[in-house]
Amino acid sequence: MSEYEIWKSDNSGVLTETPLIMTACKGGQIGSVFSYDGGSIYKTVFTYLCGAPDENSINEHPEFIYENRLVCMSAEWEECIKTLPIKFKLRREVMAPFCSESAKKLRPLPEGYTISTFTPEIFESHPFDHGRNYKDYQDFAKRGAGAAVLFEDQVVSASSSFLSYEGHVELDVFTSPEHRNKGLADHCVYEMLNQSFGKNLTVHWDAQNPMSSAMAVGHGLTPVAEYAVYWLEKS
Predict the structure, then answer these.
(1) Which residues pair with 206 in a beta bridge?
(2) What are the pLDDT digits (tens) for 117-155?
(3) Which fold has domain 3-93+226-232?
(4) What's the pTM?
């Protein structure tokens, strides 16, 4: 059994914590909402299924269900999804909201690598798509946080706020495949967490794999919920 198949003791993949992205969707900042009697669907980077499923709504709006990254916010929705053609499911882990400095003890960056905050130039280049949910650099500098590692003047690793909502930020981190296993992401996360703390921003971290979860814990965050992401394809 792979680490992706380790579930909670009740074998449930239901998400029991309300993610920041869904909260921002409710507030009209990102995505769209489809409501019906008994439930709601919040479509963002993920599609959050809340309340009780409605067969007529599913049949009339298949675009909300198929070929989306589905997250069940209720046992009723999970039971429904399990009756449909699942292509794959992934495990993710949510950390408790965090507003503190990083607890990580870092090793020095390898030779040739440098760390930088998100300058206007770095922000405008949107490395790995970072920063696209902000109006401009001034908006990001005021409400977000981020850091990047550069090699030969190119961003090869970055961690930044994916979005900001009422003093809360969603952390995003990525490293170019050819520069991994060098501790670069840890340096970016360290700077991003410390910047966020200095701005009194609460960081949310939704770990997409065991390595991301272990990195979060290493910086002082605490896992609070494990859940499944389902992908359906029409048969």
Answers:
(1) 94
(2) 999 999 999 999 999 999 999 999 999 999 999 999 999
(3) Aminopeptidase (3.40.630)
(4) 0.93
